[in-house]
């Protein structure tokens, strides 16, 4: 297991300080904001702790309200809205210094059989032989070492708990107009221990990973990316649905597209396919993509 993956597992183990109140921390970083995927996943872990183990989270809908401060612990307050015969609902509010930074609702269900169909997995090359995205970013950082680097490069973490390999990557230094879709192979950066193989933790790790690259899909048709100093970007909301079981330390294809951007907002959608072609999770995110003069 890599150091980065162990660090992720550590921050997903929240401190329980009251019956429905949990405290989470952020790894040391030069970023001025907490990564949205971290808050999303930590909120899921807080809610999971209040739900019987036979009920699995199948959907989560969250809103990012304020930037999180990485130097301050995050408090997660869980509201037990409903415990039904087969579904359980939870609301979680994450706060710092007495103000909400994130709110989310989650639905859990007892596992049961039923009607089943799915979209086909796109046909594309596998992850073998593709360059790791972190290697591409490292090369870009080195190439621009003598220039004024944007925050997207200067603050990109050296430790990444999720390994990512993009199919047909774009030129980050010289972006051009590109169709609003991208395929990225993703998996945990290392093999999970037997203790970490429980389905609830697996889903939290995938929820964390789902925030990478998704919002950037809406920028591809406009020939800009997060290195553009005129771009003000932030996640506004994020949703995920789980359809089937998976192993997050095995390769999955993250297929993303953006059907629309308008009014300084971009809508992006994502689908996670296992190597055997099963659609295991879906995501949707709307992000702020404001160009400043």
3D architecture notes:
The chain is of the alpha+beta class. The chain has a single domain, classed as Porin (Beta Barrel), CATH 2.40.160.210. It contains 5 helices and 12 strands. The protein has helices at 3-11, 36-48, 133-143, 151-154, 199-209, and strands at 15-18, 21-24, 55-64, 74-83, 87-96, 99-110, 162-167, 181-188, 231-242, 252-262, 265-274, 279-291. The chain has a 12-stranded antiparallel β-sheet. Helix 2 (36-48) packs antiparallel against helix 5 (199-209). The longest helix is centred in the first third of the chain and has 13 residues, at 36-48. The chain is globular. 33% of the residues are buried. The model has no long low-confidence stretch (mean pLDDT 92).
Please describe the topology of this protein:
Layout: H1 3-11, E1 15-18, E2 21-24, H2 36-48, E3 55-64, E4 74-83, E5 87-96, E6 99-110, H3 133-143, H4 151-154, E7 162-167, E8 181-188, H5 199-209, E9 231-242, E10 252-262, E11 265-274, E12 279-291
Antiparallel strand pairs: 1-2, 2-4, 3-6, 3-9, 4-5, 5-6, 7-8, 8-10, 9-12, 10-11, 11-12
Helix pairs in contact: 2-5
Keyword list:
293 residues, alpha+beta, Porin, twelve-stranded antiparallel sheet, 5 helices, globular
Our measurement of the CA-to-CA distance between the termini, rounded to an integer number of angstroms, reads: 45 Å
Q: Could you tell me the mean pLDDT?
A: 92
CATH architecture: Beta Barrel
Q: Characterize the overall form.
A: globular
Order of neighbouring strands in the sheet with most strands: 1-2-4-5-6-3-9-12-11-10-8-7
CATH fold call: Porin
CATH superfamily: Acyl-CoA thioesterase, double hotdog domain
Helix and strand run: HEEHEEEEHHEEHEEEE
Strand content: 35-45%
Compute the CA-based radius of gyration: 19 Å
Structural class: alpha+beta
């Amino acid at each position: 297991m890599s150091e980065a993956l162990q660090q992720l597992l550590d921050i997903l183990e929240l401190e329980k300080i009251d019956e429905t109140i949990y405290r989470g921390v952020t790894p040391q970083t030069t970023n001025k904001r907490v990564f949205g995927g971290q808050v999303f996943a930590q909120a899921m872990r807080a809610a999971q702790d209040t739900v019987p183990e036979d009920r699995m989270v199948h959907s989560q809908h969250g809103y990012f309200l304020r930037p999180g401060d990485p130097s301050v612990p995050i408090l997660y307050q869980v509201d037990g809205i409903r415990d039904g015969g087969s579904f359980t609902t939870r609301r979680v509010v994450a706060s710092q210094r007495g103000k909400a930074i994130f709110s989310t609702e989650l639905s859990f269900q007892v596992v049961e059989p039923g009607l089943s169909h799915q979209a086909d997995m796109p046909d594309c090359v596998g992850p073998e032989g593709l360059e790791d995205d972190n290697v591409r970013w490292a090369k870009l950082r080195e190439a621009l070492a003598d220039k004024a680097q944007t925050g997207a490069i200067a603050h990109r973490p050296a430790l990444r708990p999720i390994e990512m390999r993009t199919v047909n990557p774009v030129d980050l230094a010289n972006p051009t107009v590109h169709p609003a879709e991208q395929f990225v192979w993703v998996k945990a950066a290392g093999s999970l221990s037997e203790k970490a193989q429980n389905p609830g933790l697996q889903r939290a790790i995938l929820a964390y990973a789902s925030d990478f690259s998704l919002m950037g899909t809406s920028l591809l048709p406009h020939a800009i990316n997060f290195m553009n100093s005129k771009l003000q970007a932030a996640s506004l909301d994020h949703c995920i649905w789980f359809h089937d079981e998976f192993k997050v330390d095995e390769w999955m294809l993250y297929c993303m597209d953006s059907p629309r951007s308008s009014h300084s907002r971009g809508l992006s959608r994502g689908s996670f396919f296992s190597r055997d072609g099963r659609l295991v999770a879906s995501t949707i995110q709307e992000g702020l993509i404001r160009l400043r003069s």
